[in-house]
Specification:
The protein is 26% helix and 23% strand. The chain has 5 helices and 12 strands. The strands form 4 sheets. Strands 1, 2, 5, 11 and 12 form a 5-stranded antiparallel sheet that branches. A 3-stranded antiparallel sheet has the order 7-6-8, with helices on one face. The chain is globular and about 80 Å long. The protein starts with 14 loop residues before the first helix and ends in a 10-residue tail after the last strand.
Length: 277
């Protein structure tokens, strides 16, 4: 009967071509979703980091199996698409605070360059945060977020890279509650700490005031090799006390009450869909 569907595979059926075609469609659909900030008429280009990564991820019909595997590994493993529904950790492991209610909160995240981490040690990281006291969830708009993103970029990106400061044991605390600042910068020098504090203040056009700065210098010294202790039947490394390391600005997000996900303002890693590039 003409037009009747057959339950047999075509004589010239090629399992590899069929699988590749099906996988290409579904995989590239997920790639488009991941780079959803691109317009529907986006054309392949490497003019910016996110576009370059999308080109690297997109599977082509002419790809060999090796090329497909590399694209899949880049997308799923390096960019972490297969972990997208897990909680994204923001904040230093040494200073975790509960989510702030009321005014939107901006988080600035820093971490050590991978190449400078000694073997057997974890990356040193740091976080600064401040509130937008002149904004609420009702007044904060996408336009305001874009303006804020550009300010963060102008303060924390220099020569195309995130600014760096040396994290250490001394605490430089800056408090200006009316402006939304309760900063604690763990640092090695006062000049370094003041520079980072001023940059955070400039994101809201707030003037630095010396009287708002308090310095705490503990007697205990940082110890790069604290030794080991017995945990669960095995000798394990003791936690370092306020380790000293250069940490670089990576990204900034803003948490807006009422939204289930934070808004990525600026990202130097290219892994997050940020407002500013």
């Amino acid at each position: 009967m003409a037009g009747r569907l057959t339950d047999r595979l075509p004589d010239d059926f090629d399992p590899w071509e069929h699988l590749q075609g099906q996988y290409l469609v579904e995989f590239n659909r997920r790639v488009r979703q991941y780079f959803s900030e691109h317009d529907a008429d986006w054309k392949p280009n490497i003019g910016d980091k996110r576009s370059s990564m999308r080109v690297a991820c997109t599977i082509l019909d002419t790809d060999s199996y090796t090329m497909m595997a590399l694209r899949m590994s880049f997308f799923f493993d390096l960019l972490g698409y297969n972990r997208k529904d897990l909680l994204v950790y923001h904040g230093s492991r040494e200073n975790i605070e509960p989510p702030v209610k009321g005014h939107p909160k901006v988080r600035l995240y820093f971490s050590q360059d991978s190449g400078s981490v000694p073997k057997g040690y974890s990356k040193v990281d740091a976080e600064l945060s401040f509130r937008l006291m002149n904004e609420t969830q009702a007044t904060f708009t996408p336009e305001n977020a874009h303006t804020l993103a550009l300010k963060v970029k102008s303060q924390f990106i220099t020569s195309g890279q995130g600014v760096v400061f040396t994290k250490g044991k001394d605490i430089y605390a800056y408090k200006d509650v009316t402006k939304g600042y309760r900063l604690q910068v763990y640092c090695t020098t006062e000049n370094d700490a003041k520079d980072i504090i001023r940059r955070a203040l400039e994101c809201q056009d707030v003037v630095f005031k010396e009287d708002n700065l308090t310095i705490h210098k503990p007697q205990k010294n940082s110890n790069p090799k604290p030794g080991k202790h017995l945990v669960y039947g095995k000798q394990r490394d003791l936690k370092q006390y306020r380790p000293i390391a250069n940490v670089r600005f990576r990204y900034a997000v803003v948490e807006v009450p009422g939204l289930t996900k934070e808004i990525v303002l600026m990202d130097t890693t290219g892994r997050l869909p940020a407002i500013a590039f």
